[in-house]
């Protein structure tokens, strides 16, 4: 434990500066030479599958797949005044402030009232549909495919023996025709 404390040091490098350092090296070269940071393992027995889970809520990233990108609405997306007509600056500032405050607080109030019941209903619906699909639809389709295997084989034979040669010969017969368009 003491070794980690000795090795950890803060290195501050300004990559935006165009100056060379005292030893004549570029900042990018120094950046590559910086010692790697050592992180402490709190629990060695925790697997990465437990850390990355679909059931663990992602507090920082609540829309990681970008499902609701269309709802990223700002004041300027909704209300805009053309150059020809303008309200007073105070009116514009207050309307902007009231729009943002009402949007945030009304969303919070409605989500408090609806988030839990809607999530319970959608979870119940998803569970019922999943159960129905796993225990009813998939076995029935599998039984149907097993029961109609002879029909699949018969259809395949009919296609290979009758339909394919018929269309192949029709294609070869019609393939000899050519059309030339000429302006008169």
UniProtKB/TrEMBL annotation:
One of its GO terms (cellular component) is Golgi membrane. Keywords: Cell membrane, Golgi apparatus, Membrane, Transmembrane, Transmembrane helix. Residues 7-26 have a biased composition (Acidic residues). Coiled coil: none annotated. Pfam families: Caveolin. The keyword Nuclease does not apply. GO terms for molecular function: molecular adaptor activity. It comes from the Eukaryota. The chain crosses the membrane at residues 112-136. Its main location: membrane. It is a peripheral membrane protein. May act as a scaffolding protein within caveolar membranes. Interacts directly with G-protein alpha subunits and can functionally regulate their activity. Belongs to the caveolin family. This is Caveolin.
């Amino acid at each position: 434990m003491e070794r980690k404390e000795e090795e950890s040091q803060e290195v501050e490098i300004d990559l935006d500066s165009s100056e060379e350092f005292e030893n004549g090296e570029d900042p990018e070269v120094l950046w590559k030479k910086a010692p790697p940071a050592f992180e402490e393992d709190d629990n060695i027995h925790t697997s990465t599958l437990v850390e990355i889970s679909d059931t663990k809520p992602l507090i920082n990233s609540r829309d990681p797949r970008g499902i609701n990108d269309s709802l990223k609405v700002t004041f300027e997306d909704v209300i805009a005044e053309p150059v020809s007509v303008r309200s007073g600056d105070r009116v514009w500032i207050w309307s902007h402030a009231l729009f943002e405050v009402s949007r945030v607080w009304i969303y919070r109030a409605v989500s408090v009232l609806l988030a839990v019941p809607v999530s319970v209903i959608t979870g119940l619906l998803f569970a019922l549909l999943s159960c129905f699909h796993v225990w009813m639809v998939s076995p029935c389709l599998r039984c149907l495919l097993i029961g109609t295997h002879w029909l699949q084989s018969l259809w395949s034979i009919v296609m290979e023996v009758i339909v394919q040669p018929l269309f192949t010969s029709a294609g070869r017969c019609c393939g000899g025709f050519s059309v030339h368009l000429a302006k008169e």
